[in-house]
Design brief:
- This protein is an alpha+beta fold and 413 residues long.
- The strands form three sheets. It has a six-stranded mixed β-sheet with strand order 1-2-8-3-7-6, sandwiched between helices. A five-stranded mixed β-sheet has the order 9-13-10-12-11, sandwiched between helices.
- A hairpin with a 4-residue loop joins strand 6 and strand 7.
- Helix 3 packs parallel to helix 8, helix 9 crosses helix 12 and helix 12 packs antiparallel against helix 14.
C-alpha cells in the first residue's frame, strides 16, 4: 500500500461533488463542505441572511434539537464551524478518521432537514448585528470591506455581514423560506481529507446526501463596480488607506507569477512594503498587499495604517512601490518568495483541515484538486524571467482607492 496521498472525485446525480484526499500518514479526517448559499446570493432586502443562517442552521437538525445536536457532535470529538463567504456557506469539521462516517449523516440533516426553531432565530440575528457593531470598532476591517465592495462587481463585493436595516427587518419565516430555496446540492462541494476508505466513503456520502433534491437556482445579476476613489470622513487618530487593482484570475496559468510577485511585495518582514515604507521610512504601523480571486476576476488588495500627518506620504510611497514592480524582482527576492511559498505548502500538509479546505478551493477554481507535490512543482517552475516578463507586461492598472480618517488624501487618477 502506498504511503503517498491519493486523490479522488465522485459526483452524485443531484449535483453534489465529493472531492477527497487520502493521507495515510495521519489518523484524523477533516471536512470542508461548501454550499452555494453565500452572501452574494442573499435576496434583495435580505443582506445578511446567509450570516444569520450560518449560526441558526446549527441549532438543531433532523431528529436532534440544538442541545442534542451539540452533544452528539461533541461526543464524537468534532471541532466544527460554519462561516459565511461570498459564494458559499462553508461548514468545516475535524475529527478522528474512525468517526467520519458517523458525522456525515449529521451534516446531511443540517443541510436537508434543519430545525430552524423559532427560539434560535433571535440569538442568531443578534450575533450578526453584534458582528456589524464590531466592524465599526475596527477601522482597518471596515476599510477592507468598503474597498472590496467598491472594487468587485455587485453582488460579489457585498459584505458577508450584511446591512443593519435588512437584518433588523428580517423575520424567521422569510429566512426559513430563503434557506429552503437556496440550500441545493447543485454546485455544492464536499471535500474530505485524511484517513478514510474511498469505497466506504462514497457509499456513506450517497446514502447521506443522495436524497438531497436539487432546486432551481436564481442566476445572480451583476452590476458594475463603482471603482474610483472614495474618502470616508472619520475623526480618529489614525488614517486607513486601501488600494485595489485587477489582475489575472486564479485559474489563469500566470496566477502563480502574480502570487510570487505579491510574496516579494508583501511576504513578511523582508518584503518590499514592510522594508521600504515601515522600516526605512517609519511611515506606518502596518502595510501589506495580497492576491484575491473570485471565479472570474482576480485582484490585489493593499492596505496601510498610519498617523494622519503621515498618511499622504505613506500613500505616495505605497504607489512608488507598486509602480516599481514593473521593473521586476531580483534573484534574491525570488528565492525568498519561493522558499516562503513552499514552506506554506509543507505546513498545509500537516493539517487535514487545511488540506480539505485547499482541495475544495482547488476544485472550485481549477476543476480538480492539486496535490502538495503538484503545488511544489508549480512553485519550482517559477523563474526570474517568467516573473519579470509577466510584471513588465502587466503593470499595476487603474486603482480603486478608499481612505478613512480625519482628512482626505490625494489619490492619482
Amino acid at each position: 500500500m502506498s504511503d503517498r496521498p491519493e486523490q479522488f472525485i465522485h459526483q452524485l446525480p443531484n449535483g453534489l461533488t465529493l472531492v477527497a484526499e487520502k493521507i495515510p500518514a495521519i489518523r484524523s479526517a477533516a471536512m470542508s463542505f461548501l454550499v452555494p448559499a453565500g452572501a452574494a446570493s442573499d435576496p434583495t432586502g435580505m443582506a445578511g441572511a446567509a450570516a444569520v443562517t450560518s449560526d441558526w442552521i446549527l441549532r438543531g437538525a433532523g431528529s436532534r434539537d440544538s442541545r442534542e445536536l451539540t452533544s452528539y457532535l461533541d461526543g464524537l470529538g468534532v471541532q466544527r464551524s460554519c462561516r459565511t463567504e461570498t459564494v458559499f456557506l462553508r461548514f468545516a469539521a475535524s475529527m478522528l478518521g474512525k468517526n467520519l462516517l458517523a458525522v456525515l449523516p449529521v451534516y446531511a440533516d443540517i443541510v436537508m432537514w434543519p430545525r430552524l426553531a423559532e427560539d434560535g432565530f433571535e440569538p442568531a440575528r443578534d450575533l450578526a448585528l453584534q458582528q456589524l457593531d464590531a466592524i465599526e470598532d475596527e477601522p482597518s476591517h471596515k476599510l477592507s470591506l468598503l474597498l472590496r465592495e467598491r472594487h468587485f462587481p455587485f453582488p460579489y463585493g457585498r459584505p458577508t455581514a450584511g446591512k443593519r436595516e435588512d437584518l433588523e427587518a428580517l423575520t424567521a419565516d422569510r429566512l426559513r423560506d430563503d434557506c429552503r430555496s437556496r440550500f441545493t446540492p447543485s454546485g455544492a462541494i464536499l471535500a474530505i481529507a485524511g484517513m478514510f476508505d474511498w469505497d466506504n466513503l462514497v457509499k456513506a456520502v450517497e446514502e447521506a446526501f443522495g436524497k438531497w433534491n436539487a432546486s432551481p437556482t436564481t442566476p445572480l445579476v451583476e452590476k458594475a463596480a463603482p471603482r474610483g476613489s472614495e474618502h470616508v470622513m472619520q475623526e480618529t487618530n489614525q488614517s486607513q488607506i486601501g488600494l485595489a487593482w485587477d489582475t489575472v484570475k486564479e485559474a489563469h496559468p500566470d496566477s502563480i507569477l502574480m502570487q510570487t510577485a505579491m510574496s516579494v511585495l508583501s511576504g513578511g518582514m523582508g518584503a518590499r512594503l514592510f522594508t521600504e515604507i515601515r522600516e526605512k521610512q517609519g511611515l506606518c504601523y502596518s502595510v501589506h498587499a495580497g492576491y484575491n480571486s473570485l471565479k472570474n476576476i482576480g485582484a490585489v488588495f493593499g492596505y496601510a495604517g498610519t498617523a494622519p500627518d503621515r498618511a499622504q506620504q505613506t500613500l505616495d510611497s505605497f504607489l512608488i512601490e507598486l509602480n516599481r514592480l514593473a521593473a521586476g524582482v531580483t534573484p534574491d527576492e525570488l528565492d525568498r518568495a519561493k522558499i516562503g511559498m513552499k514552506s506554506r505548502v509543507i505546513m498545509q500538509g500537516e493539517s487535514s483541515g487545511a488540506r480539505a479546505a485547499s482541495i475544495a478551493h482547488d476544485f472550485y477554481h481549477y476543476g480538480s484538486p492539486r496535490s502538495l507535490d503538484q503545488w511544489r512543482t508549480i512553485i519550482e517552475g517559477v523563474t526570474l524571467n517568467r516573473v519579470n516578463d509577466f510584471l513588465a507586461a502587466n503593470p499595476v492598472g487603474k486603482l480603486t482607492a478608499v481612505t478613512l480618517g480625519p482628512s482626505e488624501l490625494k489619490v492619482p487618477s
